[in-house]
Amino acid sequence: MLDHMGITVSDYAHSRAFYERVLGVLDYGIVMDVTKEQTGGYEGCGFGPDGKPAFWIGTGQTASTGLHVAFVASSRAAVDEFHAIALQHGARDNGAPGLRPHYHPNYYGAFVIDFDGNNIEAVCHRPE
């Protein structure tokens, strides 16, 4: 249903490095950069698989807070690695990797809070 989404971050360089590491585990990479010169003020980058930016971070007046974004993981091991890498790079734990059967029997997710207070999740829906 969604084509793409974006969040404003308080420290673009720091957040960019964080998301490159964390989303790289899920096979999402930076596929597009936009400069202040191109946009008239906004600087940002878009992450996605297969060359299409689906998740954007960038500069702006107010940083996003309290947003929940869930990224698809190809395996439970990728969820585990996402969580570990995020914590190593400064995110706060918001739910260790594990099954959440109240959503459905194969829902395996992990949650972290990024530098701007957003709840970032990796989830695998496959049976182990």
TrEMBL record:
Gene3D superfamilies linked: 2,3-Dihydroxybiphenyl 1,2-Dioxygenase, domain 1
PROSITE patterns for the chain: VOC (PS51819)
Annotated Pfam families: Glyoxalase
Domain of life: Bacteria
The protein, known as: VOC family protein
Protein's organism: Lysobacter soli
